[in-house]
Design a protein that fits this description.
By secondary structure, the protein is α/β, with parallel strands linked by helices. The protein contains twelve helices and eight strands. The two termini are about 35 Å apart.
Length: about 300
């Protein structure tokens, strides 16, 4: 029986860290990693949506992961998202991730072209074959990838013994239940939508991987503690507070990741840069809302944590 305890917890999706010229900032990567270690999260999910992976080169993604692993010093579960929009680059990133000793690799399905399910399965199995000694996590995010993880495709992937988990970012909580039931004992399902973490955990998710966890990790760590303790009403209060912050952050003109990085600059003194074009950065009119969000996070942490 595999040990799944390393996946049971709050795992922030790691943010892209840039310097003033928009290049990968290794110092920022290490600073963010160490910051999250101090916040008591279970691990980090590197190179996914929050990591702006589709706008980065293979070399840049390798650089980020190398500095995360270095700064984590074995204190975090590390899941490396390695998908590119071609198999060869994805396999290269998978092999690189395994060489660094990550806990798992992960992948969305190929995007843009709508491929038949057997081709998606081949894509994932090819990636897994490049890291034969590493766990594999399927990333199901149909609203962005344009294709959903169906039960037939899921059953096909379960034939691969390295497939140990699904990061489920589809909106129906029922999907978590379906993947847990079909995956069987020891199979891991992560809740993806941050706005419904309580619901996902109640339905059986083992933990959560989320894009807003990094900007307010204290709230999500406490929320999961409360769910584990059976205090759903108290956990729901934190969920409502976190959701209100998410909705406020999303009201800015700048991209959500740009907003969260600015909040972390204000609250935590972290210099993570902006976002990579074509995603829009902050505008001056966003700043009052950004400061309001920073205050909302501080108030929620003081109240609940």
């Amino acid at each position: 029986m595999r040990d799944i305890t390393k996946y049971q917890g709050i795992i922030p999706a790691f943010y892209a860290c840039y310097d003033e010229e928009g290049k990968i900032n290794p110092e920022g990567v290490e600073a963010l990693t160490k910051h999250l270690v101090k916040k008591g999260v279970k691990g980090v999910y590197v190179g996914g949506s929050s990591g702006e992976c589709i706008y980065q080169s293979v070399a840049e993604r390798k650089l980020v992961l190398e500095h995360v692993v270095k700064a984590a010093e074995g204190k975090l579960t590390i899941i490396a998202h390695v998908a590119c929009n071609n198999t060869a680059d994805s396999m290269e990133l998978a092999a690189h991730a395994e060489s660094l000793g990550v806990d798992a690799i992960a992948s969305i399905p190929p995007i843009y072209f709508h491929l038949p399910e057997y081709a998606i399965a081949q894509y994932w199995n090819d990636i897994s074959s490049a890291a034969p000694n590493t766990d594999f996590v399927i990333y199901n995010i149909p609203q962005l990838a344009g294709v959903a993880l169906t039960m037939p495709l899921f059953k096909e992937m379960l034939k691969n013994p390295n497939v140990v988990a699904v990061k489920n970012s589809s909106m129906p909580v029922q999907d978590i239940q379906m993947f847990k039931m079909e995956g069987g004992e020891g199979f891991v399902v992560f809740n993806g939508p941050d706005e419904q973490l309580v619901s996902g955990l109640a339905m059986g998710a083992d933990g959560g991987i989320g894009g807003t966890y990094g900007v307010m990790p204290e709230l999500y760590v406490k929320l999961m503690e409360l769910v584990k303790a059976g205090d759903i009403p108290a956990a729901r209060d934190i969920q409502y507070a976190a959701d209100a912050i998410i909705y406020k952050m999303c009201s800015c003109k700048g991209n959500l990741y740009a907003v969260m990085k600015e909040i972390m600059k204000i609250r935590d003194g972290l210099e993570l840069g902006s976002v990579r074009k074509p995603m829009p950065g902050l505008v001056e009119a966003d700043m009052p809302t950004v400061r309001e969000c920073a205050d909302m996070i501080s108030a929620a942490i003081e109240k609940f944590c």
